[in-house]
Every structure is written in C-alpha cells, then in structure tokens.
Design brief:
By secondary structure, the chain is an alpha/beta fold. It is built from ten helices and five strands; from the N terminus they run E-H-E-H-E-H-E-H-E-H-H-H-H-H-H. Helix 7 packs across helix 8, helix 7 packs across helix 9 and helix 8 crosses helix 9.
C-alpha cells in the first residue's frame, strides 16, 4: 500500500486531509505534528512514497526543512502545503526540487489529483493559484507591500490574531506586530481592522 506522511501543526487540517485520502482505500497515512516529528518518522520508518510538509509549521524554517526532508526521503517525492504562502514561495519550493506546491484551500478532488500526480513522479503546481497570485502582485495596493507584509495582511483579512499569523509564518509575534504597523502605515490604515477592510474593499483578497 502507498505510504504518505503528512506533517502539519494544525490538527484540523492534518486530520481532514488524512481522512479524505484514507477513504480512497489505497493509501496508508502517517501523520506528524511538526517538522521535528516528521524527521523522526523519516529516520525510523522512511522513506515514504510521498511526504506533504506544511510550510509554516515549527521546525521548517522556510525551505530548509524541505531540503532536509528530500535528503532523508531518499529521492521519493516531498511536497509543500500552505494556506498563506504566495507564488514566490511556491516557485522557490519547486526550484528546490519539491514534488509540488499544494494550497490548503484547494478542493478535495483537486488534492487527490495533486497527490496522484506527484506519486507518478510529476511536479505539481496549481495553475489557478499561480495565476491568481500573479494578478494580486500586479495590484496597486500589493505593489506598496513586501511579500511578507502581503502574507501578514492576508492573515488579517482572515481574522487571525498576531499569534496565529506568527505560527502560520513561523515568525515571532513581535515581528508580526512590526509588519502590521508598517503595512498599516503604507495603506494609510488607522489600525489592523481598517487595513483588512481596505484590502477587501480593493479586492486584494
């Protein structure tokens, strides 16, 4: 049976993806709550036919976790998942030989297609995500902000707290506070709520 390792620090995301793939009846799903646990499982009972790593979970430190996992999985496919990363991160991951980039927002059937694609040895990247991200980067508001500020602003638009955004992006909460202050100034927003409102009214997210 095909073995897939899913590493994500969000219980709901991890369990949802696991349950969906297990229903197919042809996959054995193993889960890890962060990159450190994933490393341990790779060392103890790897390689896996496919590894899915959350980009923002503890221990990943950007794409360095991807490179370690690729090495430890002995040539078998390793992909990145994310609910916040932008097209630049996706492109960097693919350039670093990730088997694919999987947005957490994608429909279940598309996720299954992506998994099948990567298991077949192909590199997966959703065209719609890459196109939408490209259009967002061309937006007048987006041109004022750095990639990181865009990620933080997206978190604000989702109603996430600084602590939640920090966890998703694997940053310190104080760093998020600084980004919120900076992006609010650039958008001429009174506060974080106003910044999110401006972004939504302008169709940025």
């Amino acid at each position: 049976m095909t073995r897939i390792l899913i590493a994500d620090d969000h219980d709901l995301v991890r369990d949802t993806i696991s349950s969906f793939l297990e229903r197919e009846g042809q996959y054995q799903i193993i889960v890890a709550e962060d990159f450190y646990a994933a490393e341990k499982k790779l060392a103890e009972d790897g390689p896996y036919d496919l590894v899915l790593l959350d980009y923002g979970m503890p221990g990943m430190t950007g794409l360095s976790g991807l490179e370690k996992a690729i090495e430890k999985n002995h040539g078998y496919p390793v992909a990145i998942m994310s609910g916040t990363a932008d097209r630049t991160v996706a492109q960097d991951a693919l350039a670093a030989k990730a088997a694919g980039f999987v947005p957490k927002t994608m429909p279940a059937k598309s996720l299954l297609h992506a998994v099948q694609f990567m298991l077949a040895g192909e590199q997966y990247a959703p065209v719609q995500f890459m196109t939408q991200a490209s259009e967002a980067e061309a937006h007048p508001l987006a041109s004022r902000l750095s990639d990181r500020e865009m990620q933080v602003l997206e978190g604000l638009c989702k109603g996430h707290s600084n602590k939640e955004i920090a966890r998703d992006l694997d940053l310190q909460e104080v760093t998020i506070k600084l980004h919120v202050k900076t992006l609010s100034r650039k958008l001429e927003a009174r506060n974080r709520t106003h910044a999110a409102m401006i972004a939504k009214e302008e169709g940025l997210f």
